Amino acid sequence: MKLEQDTPRNAFALLSWRVNVAVVVALVSVSAVAWSATVEQAHSMRGMVMDYRDLAGMGAVEFLAMWTTMMAAMMLPTIVPMVLSHHAVALRRGQSALSTLAFVTGYMLIWSAIGIAMWLAYQVFAQWGDDAAQSQWLSTLAGATLYLAGSYQGTRWKQRCADMCRTPLTFVVIHHSYRGVRDALRAGVVHGGYCLGCCWAAMIVLVVVGLTNLLGMAILFVLFLVEKNWEHGRAVAYVAGIGMMTLGVAVLGYPPLLTAISN
Fold first, then answer.
1. Domain assignment of residue 30, given as a range
2. What is the three-class DSSP state of 195?
3. How far apart are CA 19 and CA 164, in angstroms?
4. Nearest to 88 by CA among 155, 1, 29
5. CA atoms within 13 A on the CB side of 253
């Protein structure tokens, strides 16, 4: 396949159908297990969706485990074409499946690391006391966050990162230049960085509506999957951005809406 024909869809033509099925089943199975654990966690928390104190009360290890599981559920299926492209290049260079496993591990390291920043943010927010959750400025902050997240969807940096995700073979050829597990791990970290650049703003929406809000997670999962892998993903990103901005303005104008969308 020529690089000018590089699309997520064409990544499925790089390997045999058996290998494609094996890779897809592996990633989707891990995601399914992670979704199951996430749903169980959300149900066990029930009314804690917007209670930052409960999240802040978690230990760092417990919070990171929950966060990493959520990221595995939401993000692994979105990188199927990238993993197929990496595996195809790795096989042509005489590398084993361990190289591709290292690539996926590097990718997940980035999203796991973001969990550390999230946990620290909740710790800081918890120090502001119980009145913070009831104050007017919280809805203002939430509305502004939604608006800014939506506006990011149309930025050049967002599109550059998304374009790197939509050209999987080109990315692998550029960033996996050498043989070995270490280089595959590094390439996975780099891809995780681009994926973060593509998705971080929309992910912040999950913080606004509730970190364990299953509906919010499902919507973002579909958004990321479509944005990164559909030929009209850029248009979808713009539409999603307009929706986030509109919701942000609505929350600013009518603060009780924040409670409605976070339950």
1. 3-261
2. helix
3. 24
4. 1
5. 7
Residue 68 amino acid letter: T
Give residue-wise pLDDT tens across range 108-164: 999 999 999 888 887 877 776 555 555 677 788 889 999 999 999 999 999 999 999
pTM score, whole prediction: 0.91
Instruction: Give how many domains the chain has, as a whole number.
Output: 1
Task: At 224, give phi and psi (nearest 5°).
Answer: -65, -40
- In 3-state terms, the chain is what percent helix, strand and coil (to 5)? 85, 0, 15
Residue 211: partners with Cβ closer than 8 Å, 6 or more residues away? 49, 55, 70, 118
Q: What is the pLDDT of residues 18-45, one digit of tens each?
A: 999 999 999 999 999 999 999 988 877 6
Which residue has tokens 């608006």? 147
